[in-house]
Amino acid sequence: MDGKNVTYGETGMERLAQVLRSSGQPQDITWLTERYLEILRELVLAEEQNS
Amino acid sequence: MSNTTTFQGNPAQRALAEQVYQVMTTQGRLFASDAPIRQTLTNLADFFAVQNKTDRETIARDIDAALRENNGLFAREEREDDILYITSRVGAYKPRVEDTLHMFRRRLHEPEHPLPVDDISVVVTTTRPALTTVEPVFISDYWQQQAGGTPVVPALPTITAAVVVPDDVETVVEAIEVAEEAPIIAPVPVAAPAVVERPMLNTVITLPNGLQIDLRRSVDELMAQYGATLATQLRSSIERAIPPRLVVFGNQVFPEVGGGGFGKNDLRRIRDYLLEAGEPLLDVQIMQDIFRYSQNRPDYESFRFELNYRLSREKDFEFVGVEGARLWTTKGMPPIGTKRLKASEMGQVMGYIEEGFDDSLVSQTADTIRKSGSLSLILSFFEWEYGALPFTRAMAALMPTSLLPDQRTTVLRFEAPQHYTSALVELRYPTGNRGGWLQGLDGFFRDYLIPGAMITISRTDNQHIFTITYEEQPEVADRLLVVDEKKNKLAFENVSYYCVVDTDMLLSQAQYGRLRNLKLFPMGERRKGDAMLEHAFETIGDPIGTRSEPRYRTTIEKLLVALNVLRPASKDYLVHLLKENELFVPETATTWTYTPPPATDEDDEDEEDIYDDDEE
């Protein structure tokens, strides 16, 4: 995905919610931010790995 | 046409071929002269069998044989179940060849002598179409080449193979033999390095606040540099409640639990329990005592989160806890601290802190307080009387911050290890230009301390629990300033105390005897710092004028003590008030004089005669 198409706080939030749900308990906002960055990195860098 | 056409074969075949030709040209007499005229053998056999009254099979064979003899005139095509003959009115059928060598379209687009083209757009019509539809405009390769739009493909050079006839045939043979003996080295094709052009990926994302970060960097790097901003931006996005809904309580996030976690009955039970306890309770206490929720349960933390989140949405409940201790209170709980202080008035009285006159960090830094975990201060009369301490920057360095963004209050517990007692203290956070303060220590102060006592407040391992200590000393008796509640005025009484005091701040009759003349203004009046200072100056100052032209002199230290009887004030705030009013004039660095404005008759009547003996 092109970085221009990423809206921070909207793109990938479904996946973030899944990660949070699968953890089974409330998580700190810092922990969540790290997971969210991982998701965004995957989305943006996946195209580079495929090409 | 038949006149000029000669037919082949024997006489019978020639006659039959001529008849067939006449039938077919009659059939296509309205066709174009060179248009193909087609007929099947079946049809021809049927026709001539009737005409000649002969056997159909026989005539079919005769027709086929006659037309085969004249195959120059009749083209023959064998279909699946029949034979097709094709001819034309002008003889043998020849497919038409379109002559496109001189087409108008070609001449238009590719003229022999074109005009110079500087811009390809001049070739395209600018006529506005009736309908605003975007249609592709054809521009021939010719014009595109003329405009440099497409590269001109150079004509391939004609390779003319020169045929060399060797003069000496033997030499050639020898050469061939040598060539056969020599090892055959196949030319190694030099492959050009494969250049794979990857499109440049845009890995930079822009945050809602405009900050751009490159996702090629590792998560650790990004968090180290922008962690706070990234977390804040994510938090604000979550709080906008865009699906999928995640909910935040404090610093924790969890997917929203749909529907029925806690019903009205559960909330009523929590409220009743809080009222019965009479003080704020921890969330874990509520879980254990009301819901019998054990910490061993796997969903303990999610249930705890849900409880806190739900209570934060209810108007009847108020969060008064900190990060490590989530305390809840409800409407109708007994107030913490004296009832004589109203929050609205206190906020204004303490406003000087937010106005920039907080000098609490002059002698110590906030970092020192944070590291040491304790803060020492000397009690003023106001602080002692009302059990309220200003929420200065020094105090803020020691106290916990609010957990929720709209949290107004935190309830803390102050333990006094010297007396095995404790007190609930309400920490009111500053809002806007209203200052913050702590209240609830009036009982402890009255029981064990006096104004001028030095106290130390220290943190404990629990974020909401503090200790308050003081240095003890043998009993000392003195006449100290107190509030005579029956008469609602200040007076001096004999008091015994056991704490070490700052003697300059000790409000003894010997030192500050004039303070009994201070008027106890309503709290609403006390927020006016300038008016309180004038009154304090008149009371504590030495009279140096005359009865008709009164004038007073005193030091900043005494003024500070006197002003702090009526209201809390820092030294910076006092100096600011002195400098602001022209009636106050500095004599030395620490001594000021005050000339009151001319008094009205009414004032004269009210005023006590301080120029007489004012000290007992």
The stretches of 5 or more residues of chain B where confidence is low (pLDDT under 50) are: 154-186, 611-616
Radius of gyration of chain B: 56 Å
The total of beta strands of chain B comes to 23
- Number of separate helices of chain A: 2
CATH topology of the domain at 249-330 in chain B: Arc Repressor Mutant, subunit A
The biggest sheet of chain B, with number of strands, parallel, antiparallel or mixed sense and barrel status, is: 7 strands, mixed
CATH class term of the domain at 249-330 in chain B = Mainly Alpha
Helix content of chain A: 55-70%
Question: Rough shape of chain B?
Answer: elongated
Instruction: Tell me the β content of chain B.
Output: 15-25%
Structural write-up:
The complex is a heterodimer of chains A (51) and B (616). Chain A has two helices and one strand, in the order H-E-H. Chain A is mostly helical and 51 residues long. Chain A has one domain (3-50). The radius of gyration of chain A is 12 Å and the shape is elongated. With 616 residues, chain B is α+β, with helices and mostly antiparallel strands. Among the domains of chain B are: 11-87, Arc Repressor Mutant, subunit A, CATH 1.10.10; 111-150, no CATH class; 212-242, no CATH class; 249-330, Arc Repressor Mutant, subunit A. In chain B, 34% of the residues lie in helices and 18% in strands. Chain B is built from 22 helices and 23 strands. In chain B, a hairpin with a 2-residue loop joins strand 6 and strand 7. The N and C termini of chain B lie far apart (160 Å). The A-B interface holds A 2-4, 6, 8-10, 13-14, 16-17, 20-21, 24-30, 32-34, 36-38, 40-41, 44-45, 47-48, 51 and B 198-199, 201-208, 215-216, 219, 222-223, 227, 230-231, 233-238, 240, 242, 244, 246, 248-249, 251-255, 298-299, 301-302, 305. Strand 1 of chain A pairs antiparallel with strand 7 of chain B, so a sheet runs across the interface.
